[in-house]
Amino acid sequence: MLAKSLILFIGIGVVAGLAFGLYLIDVKNTSQLVFVEGSSISIVTEKFDFKKGEEITIRIVNSGTAQLTFSDASYGLRITGLSGILIFAPWISGEVISSLEPGDEIIFSWDQIKNDGDAALEGLYKISAKGIDNEGNNVEKFITITIWK
Fold first, then answer.
1. Which of 57, 77, 99, 132 would you call most buried, defined as having the most Cβ atoms within 10 angstroms of its Cβ?
2. pTM score, two decimals?
3. Closest-CA residue to 141 (of 62, 84, 81)
4. Which CATH architecture has domain 41-148?
5. Cβ atoms of 58 and 45 closer than 8 Å
6. What is the bridge-based pairing of β-strands 56-62 and 105-110?
C-alpha cells in the first residue's frame, strides 16, 4: 500500500504539470503568420529552436492588405542579440528600393555566420523586419529564436 503523502504529491505533480503545459501552449504561440486588414508584416521560420550551425530559413510575408516598401533589397531584415547588437544583416549590392504586395513573401537563408565572419554562439536572437506602408507609417515585426549546442 502506498503512503497517503506519496499519492498526494504525485497528484499535485500531475495537476501542476498539466497546468504548466497548458500555460506554455498559450505563451509560446506557434502561429507566426496571421493575415490582417491594413498594414502588417510577418516573419516566419520553420521552428523556434535551432541546432548550432543549422541553416535557418526566414520568410518575410506582407500579411496585410497594403503594399509595403523597404529602403533596401534586404527587406529590412536584421538579426540581433537580445541586447540589440547587430549580428547579421544581408548585404545585397546596390541601393534598391524593394516592395511587397499584399500576400507576397521573400525568403532569406542564414547559415548562422555573423557579419564579421564568426559563427553565431548559442543563445537567443531576435529576427526583425521593418518596412513602410503607403501612408508613410513604419511597419515592424520581430520574432525570437534560440540556437542550441
1. 77
2. 0.76
3. 62
4. Sandwich (2.60)
5. yes
6. antiparallel
